[in-house]
């Protein structure tokens, strides 16, 4: 009887994914990039859709929400997991609406709609549709293909933004920015300055990769950012999450970089694919930060001093939206003030709180 | 120890999490004391769910008195047939041992199973808070192969002795390290279990290590170390370690095993993490004006009164704490009531205990289960209070930390004894356990010197007759030097008699062999001493003022006579080299006789005691000191070497 076997298999996969999330992220840079996490989450959600027992869209959404809550609780700083879950929930709603035959009007919140619709939003999602499962799975597959193409889409826009003989600054290591710069380097010649981003020093790896691609690279310490900023034409950075107000949660040191850029009126460009956009706001003190083992800052071998001193090692930084000039994502470039519209296209308001 | 909570999670959970995250797929848990409770706990936990990647088998027996018994049982039941990881149930760690595992496997493949065990140490400076005094160890390690040459516990020792055999063991460079913290994690091969069965007096891992080092020549087994700089691995073996590991846990040194990660997946146990390492679970209520200063972990449904000041503490679930309470380095378990105006410094309070008003607990107090300490009393440092009377005869050796159920059974007995209000306060319940009155208890667990030894002089904490194995007998006694000297004299005597009484070489060999066994000298040393005795013989006979030519005339006939004796000992290539190094040593001491050196060497070559290849190899081997370099530059020697090389070439051409 394949049923129960499939279920235990599914629970095993979910448990394995959860433990991976909890253990992964030792802070020495994410062990897996956000893109892989996003892909794995989506694949897991597809598996749940295929194998779990559900009869109507409402049941499926319940199951996904429940698992989703566990996944986000496992590693709150890994927002791509939550984002993918919300995307899938939106897909389910859309597919359901399409199967029901109701017109595909944009269910974006607008004042007019609030006034005119009034009370119709009591969708039960209880009607079973035979083809719903396959439709949902197809849509998830499309989402997966989209995820795979994001880095290339962003890199294709590089030539519009980078001109010859420019000096570009970046911080830490971002695969998106790396692809972006390498793509531009095929046709243009420019310099890159990389801030090393202590204590994990991922900037070193980024600099090595860029110089292998033939780009002239310089590595500086974080403390030298302000001093060097006067010679920089543009600052291009990656980020871990884009928050709902247009702000960023990026690797620590980014706020310093952003402030220095603002002071010198240097444009700050953020390359972030759409799956990093999260409906969270930055006022949740408890889940915003991630502190890892203080070993990187003051090693354990130091001895007696450790019991007298408090050592912290935060991983992320908040960058307010005023400091950002442009977001480049796989669907084009946007201003930070436009982020809220993009969000409503991607996620349904009821899913903001899992 | 495995079930006691550390940061509100039982310690065995940390160990199992460490093993699972390393990729272990099958775990055997051996318990002897409180076995049923451990079993119940594990079966409720996430390790025994069907989706767990790590299958846990629990094996219990009352006969396990030590690590040795457990391993003998493993061998008897043939439970493991490949390399396994040996860990205590109270190890908290996040070390990634995959590299150590790879090295271990590689070594075993290369050297055909000589390496029996790899111990994992963490680098940490001496005197570090997380180093347990009892476990302090000095290790001599060969730099290239990471093999242990000498291992000695240093607790309480003011002087250390190192046996000479570590210098002679053939390694070019070795380090003596005191900066290693024993994490009590070892990667063992199946031979370990067999070795424990063979030697049934091995009780602990230290016995094993020492025994192996002593018997290294006979059995050829070696132990290696792996030292990590990153990662954290400490065993909680006494209360001081409990304090320090708890602090480290709350300060996130054991990331990702942090309190808010809730890795045990228990419902309702997740907590949130705020600045300054403050963790709060759900349902915590904090009174007006109370401050959680830093490094605090509070369990669920606990309520704390007004104007409290809490720092560096761990508080369990469902506790009720009154107003104006000061807690510093306090470890409070579940369901504890603390009334107002109490001050607790560096103490442990177990489940369901109650502390009434106005009580002050000074450093290093322990209140066991269900104890009540009455109002307005101050307990001096190091007091231990338990519901079990210290004088009671306990049939099954239950320690004072067993809880309710057992106390209930014995209630008739205890009712006859009255609680002493002077000790525990007017409404108090419990008995004070004094350091001297405890008879020996089970090997694990907190026993009387609960807090272990502290580096700063601490008045009461010196008595300890507990679990730790016999302290430091000097590991390998080193009267070897005397033995060697005596042997030297004896060989000299033998050769003299041989000369005078014209004894045949076979008999001489026999005598020397018997001397070797009598004084327990290694074959290599026999050979070297023999060489030196022979080379020094002319000096012995005629005094030290010999010219080189006289020396040579005396020595050559001796060499000829005793050639068979030499040939008996100098067989393998290594022997040739050893003989040559003894030869070198001798001549380094006798600088004036370098002229004679060549003749002697040539003679030995002609008598076929030494082979030309070996001589050439010895010559070209890096000279280790200036003097020996000078030796090699000696004209005569160089000519001889040249002649040898030509001779070798011509002999090769001739063939």
Automatic annotation (TrEMBL), chain A:
Principal localization reads cytoplasm
GO cellular component entries: cytosol; eukaryotic translation initiation factor 2B complex
Q: Does the keyword Protease apply?
A: no
GO molecular-function terms, A-Z: guanyl-nucleotide exchange factor activity; translation initiation factor activity
What job does this protein perform? Acts as a component of the translation initiation factor 2B (eIF2B) complex, which catalyzes the exchange of GDP for GTP on eukaryotic initiation factor 2 (eIF2) gamma subunit. Its guanine nucleotide exchange factor activity is repressed when bound to eIF2 complex phosphorylated on the alpha subunit, thereby limiting the amount of methionyl-initiator methionine tRNA available to the ribosome and consequently global translation is repressed.
Family membership, please give it: Belongs to the eIF-2B alpha/beta/delta subunits family.
Q: Assembly and interactions? A: Component of the translation initiation factor 2B (eIF2B) complex which is a heterodecamer of two sets of five different subunits: alpha, beta, gamma, delta and epsilon. Subunits alpha, beta and delta comprise a regulatory subcomplex and subunits epsilon and gamma comprise a catalytic subcomplex. Within the complex, the hexameric regulatory complex resides at the center, with the two heterodimeric catalytic subcomplexes bound on opposite sides.
| Protein's name according to its UniProt entry | Translation initiation factor eIF2B subunit beta
From TrEMBL, chain B:
Annotated localization: Cytoplasm, Cytosol
The W2 domain extends over: 477-654
Pfam annotation, one family: W2
In this chain, the stretch annotated as Disordered covers: 388-413, 454-480
Query: Which GO MF terms does the UniProt record name?
Result: guanyl-nucleotide exchange factor activity; translation initiation factor activity; translation initiation factor binding
Query: Which InterPro entries did the record assign?
Result: ARM-type_fold, eIF-2B_epsilon_N, eIF2B_epsilon, LbH_EIF2B3/5, Nucleotide-diphossugar_trans, Trimer_LpxA-like_sf, W2_domain, W2_eIF2B_epsilon
- What span is annotated as the signal peptide, if there is one? none
Q: Name one GO cellular component term.
A: eukaryotic translation initiation factor 2B complex
Q: What is its main location?
A: cytoplasm
Amino acid composition bias (Acidic residues), ranges on this chain: 392-406, 459-473
Keywords associated with the record = Cytoplasm, Initiation factor, Protein biosynthesis
Entry coiled-coil feature ranges: none
> What binding partners and quaternary form does the record give?
Component of the translation initiation factor 2B (eIF2B) complex which is a heterodecamer of two sets of five different subunits: alpha, beta, gamma, delta and epsilon. Subunits alpha, beta and delta comprise a regulatory subcomplex and subunits epsilon and gamma comprise a catalytic subcomplex. Within the complex, the hexameric regulatory complex resides at the center, with the two heterodimeric catalytic subcomplexes bound on opposite sides.
Member of which family? Belongs to the eIF-2B gamma/epsilon subunits family.
Annotated protein name in UniProt: Translation initiation factor eIF2B subunit epsilon
Organism of origin is: Haplochromis burtoni (Burton's mouthbrooder)
